[in-house]
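Hey,
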Amino acid sequence: MKTRAVIVAVVWLFGAVAYGQSADTLGSASWIEELSAEARTSAGEPGAVGPLAPGEGTFEKRSGVTIETVGDPYSFGRAQTYLGVAQTNTVVLQADCTGFPPDGGVCIETLPAPAATTVDETELATIELPGRSSRSILCFTFTPFATWQWANDTGVQQTARMFLRPAVRVESEVLDDPSLIDPSTGLPFNGVLLDSNITTFVQARTIDPGETDLQFHTTTRTCTGGLVNERALREGYGLSDSVIRDFFRNPITVTFGVRGSVAMVTDATYSVGVRLYGD
């Protein structure tokens, strides 16, 4: 079965040439050799290669594309790979959480108006990626689902806010090395590359005395630079080629949650659907 997988890959490559595609269309011989190596990797053959080292047969070197011409030469021309999907537990905000069912999500009691209520729930869903899941990037789509009601019973005009955002944390044992320093903090990574919020939407408006306003919102934010990409690891985090290579060759844990604050909200629900992609 392993040998068959390699044969199929090679037949596909040369079959494409037979059907009229030139060598320029397919790329150089090194491109063909690398794809054949990828076939061996998927077949599980001994000696199969994983993600290439930066600058070692990358698309930048192979086809002449550069940061200046395409922005991201590391993922250029590679196929998208689906890496998993998750749905966070629902965050519920209401005045009283007494009797809230254990399987109903996470209940947070709102503070009396006009005080803001803070949300910091970071362990609502997890995707565990095996090593070699992607070669140079972790892309995403985040789709939050939010329903809330603003109400003003304070007797004066107030500012109503809905400032909840998806939260994400990216972890790798490769970053447990205490000699690896996060330039944004000056401290060791301690295994955590990224712990941040992803803004999809926020809303704020003035609300008059006695007014109520029921809102429902869903939107999707998708990948641009991704959660992680090879260029950012090198230029932004200052990681070496060998650390970057090891990062993608080892398991990665991505954890999702919800952070932010609300004001003048009597009740709300908020959850996030997530899908990850790689190359």
